[in-house]
Amino acid sequence: MNKTELANVCKALLEEKMRDAELAMKAAQESANSNEKSSMGDKYETGRAMGQLERDMHAKRLSELQTEYAKLIQINLDYVHSKVEMGALVQTETNWYWLAVALSAVLFNQNKVMLVSPVSPIAKAMLGKKQGDFFEFNERKIKILRVF
Fold first, then answer.
1. What's the predicted TM-score (pTM) here?
2. SS (HEC) of the chain
3. pLDDT tens digit string along 2-18?
């Protein structure tokens, strides 16, 4: 499995999510700015405040995605790992995992690859393990078939 190609898929996914978050943030800001004062008293201020809260929520999401993107581009894709660590691609009996960024899963070369942060519970259970080792997760013993 080619980590460079997988990284490109992840980059494209992150870029799409960042665009979506940025558009949602701008739309929320425009909505907050367009609320007109009415005779209903606090309605204007409440609408602006809600729009600002929504904008802040999308801004936070955008910042998180940018952080994940920065982590992704720092990974040495040519390095072949001998143990499970940041940047390692891991094949287990049940799934493929890439310890890189927290993005859920992608379909890559007809394989479902779980994209997990190295601080996620599943990654923590695998960290430091090598090919042939077992780890426990959700009361199941899982064998590591390969580490790339």
1. 0.84
2. CCHHHHHHHHHHHHHHHHHHHHHHHHHHHHHHHHCCCCCCCCHHHHHHHHHHHHHHHHHHHHHHHHHHHHHHHCCCCCCCCCECCCCCEEEECCCEEEECCCCEEEEECCEEEEEECCCCHHHHHHCCCECCCEEEECCEEEEEEEEC
3. 999 999 999 999 999 99
